[in-house]
Specification:
This protein has helices at 23-30, 46-60, 111-125, 141-149, 178-184; strands spanning 8-9, 13-16, 67-74, 79-90, 95-102, 131-137, 153-164, 167-177. It has one domain (8-184): Aminopeptidase, CATH 3.40.630.30. The protein is of the alpha+beta class. The longest helix has 15 residues, at 46-60.
């Protein structure tokens, strides 16, 4: 298993652990109602953004480690512009899920796709996973495109599968298998 100070890089991003001083950059996107529109959380208060940082830091110290939260830093600006994670749901089945969130100022630039691709690579190459999945709200077409561009396949529609912000939501389920990842490389 990788050490707790795992850092991933893409062409434009550095994915690194969150630091206590990151809370304001996190709060910039986590308090934006449009960014949080399809999320189970948010818009965050300042305290909720600080608590997110505390929880992410604690996750890095868990044994066995199952969660890998990353701050997404734009290399060119040395600016934290989002967050992403891979979370092992079943060690026995070698399965994990991914998620990502990008500051709205940086939408439409392919950065979510870069982050998702890095998580998928990390999952198969470093964590020895068999299957990685993600869900996105049925109405979140931009996120669906990110998952498809990352090599994932839409497997099904999960009807009224999550109750978020007072209403039931449908989600698309996407996944990629290790052998599919290897073929795409």
């Amino acid at each position: 298993m990788p050490e707790s100070e795992t850092v991933l890089t893409t062409r434009r991003l550095i994915l690194r652990p969150f630091h206590e001083e990151d809370w304001q950059a996190v709060h910039e996107y986590a308090s934006d109602a449009e960014v949080c529109r399809y999320m189970a959380w948010g818009p965050n208060t300042e305290e909720e953004s600080k608590e997110f940082i505390r929880k992410a830091s604690a996750e890095e110290r868990q044994e066995p480690r199952v969660g890998y939260p990353f701050a997404a830093v734009l290399q060119a600006e040395a600016k934290l512009i989002g967050g992403c994670r891979i979370h092992i749901g079943s060690m026995g089945d070698r399965e994990a899920w991914i998620g990502y969130c990008i500051n709205r100022k940086y939408w439409g630039k392919g950065l979510g796709t870069e982050a998702a691709g890095a998580l998928i690579r990390f999952g198969f190459e470093a964590l020895n996973l068999h299957r990685i999945f993600a869900t996105c709200d049925r109405e979140n077409l931009a996120s669906a495109r990110v998952l498809e561009k990352s090599g994932m396949t839409r497997e099904k529609l999960l009807r009224r599968h999550k109750r978020e912000k007072g209403k039931w939501r449908d989600s698309f389920l996407y996944a990629i298998l290790e052998e599919e990842f290897l073929r795409q490389r």
